[in-house]
Prior knowledge:
By secondary structure, the protein is of the alpha+beta class. The protein has helices spanning about 100-110, 140-150, 180-185, 210-240; strands at about 1-5, 5-10, 30-35, 45-50, 50-60, 75-85, 125-135, 165-170, 170-175, 185-195, 200-205, 205.
Amino acid sequence: xxxxxxxxxxxxxxxxxxxxxxxxxxxxxxxxxxxxxxxxxxxxxxxxxxxxxxxxxxxxxxxxxxxxxxxxxxxxxxxxxxxxxxxxxxxxxxxxxxxxxxxxxxxxxxxxxxxxxxxxxxxxxxxxxxxxxxxxxxxxxxxxxxxxxxxxxxxxxxxxxxxxxxxxxxxxxxxxxxxxxxxxxxxxxxxxxxxxxxxxxxxxxxxxxxxxxxxxxxxxxxxxxxxxxxxxxxxxxxxxxxxxxxx
Length: 247
Ligand code: ADP
C-alpha cells in the first residue's frame, strides 16, 4: 500500500503483471447472463459480471408516454438506468441523479443506432436497467443485459451490443476494470461495439492516456466485446433451447 494524503492507494499491478484480483491485463471478470429472468416484462435479462448484478427489462413497442414524445416515422427508444440505494458500499441517495440521467441518455442513443425503429412508428421501446450491486462497469453490464433483454423481447436489431470498459492501471492498459482499478487507476474508458460491422456506438473516457495507449485500449476493448458477444448469444440459445429455466 502506498499512501496519498489520507487515502490508501492499493498496488494495482504486481511486478509479475497481475492485477489486484489476480487477473491478467487482458482478462475479463467472470460473466453469467440469464435471458428471460423476469415474467412480467416483454423481454428481460440478468447479468452477474464480477461483483456487478444488473437486471434489465424491456417493454414495447408500446404506446408513447408522455404522448408529445411520439414520432410519426419511428419508435422512440427510452432507457432508464438506475442504481439501487443498496447497490454500493455507502448507501446511495435514491433516485435519478445527474450521473444516472447521463448514462440513461448515452445508452438510449447507443440502442437507437441498432434498433430498426422505423418498423414501429408512433411507439416507444422502453428499457429499464436496475443495478442491484455495483463494482465498476455497471453501464457496460447494463448495456449487455438490455441488449439480451431486447432480443428476448423480439425487438429487431442490427446486432447485439456487447460492451466493456478498458482502462489504464499501474501504467498498463487493462480490460474490464473493477472498483479499485476504476477509483485509483489512470483512465477508464467504457465502450459498446456492433460486432458485425465493428462500429462503436458508445465511447467515453475519464482520465488520461497517450494516443498509442488509446489505440491499444480500443483493440483490447474490441477483443473483449467479441468474447462477451459469444456469451450473450449463448444466453439466448440457452433460453430458447430450454436450457436455463425462466422465472
Ligand atoms: P460504471 O459503473 O459504468 O463504471 P462509474 O465509472 O461512474 O460508472 O462508476 C464506477 C463505480 O463507482 C460504480 O460501478 C459504483 O461501484 C461506484 N459508484 C458510482 N456512483 C456511486 C454513488 N453515487 N455512490 C457510491 N458509489 C458509486
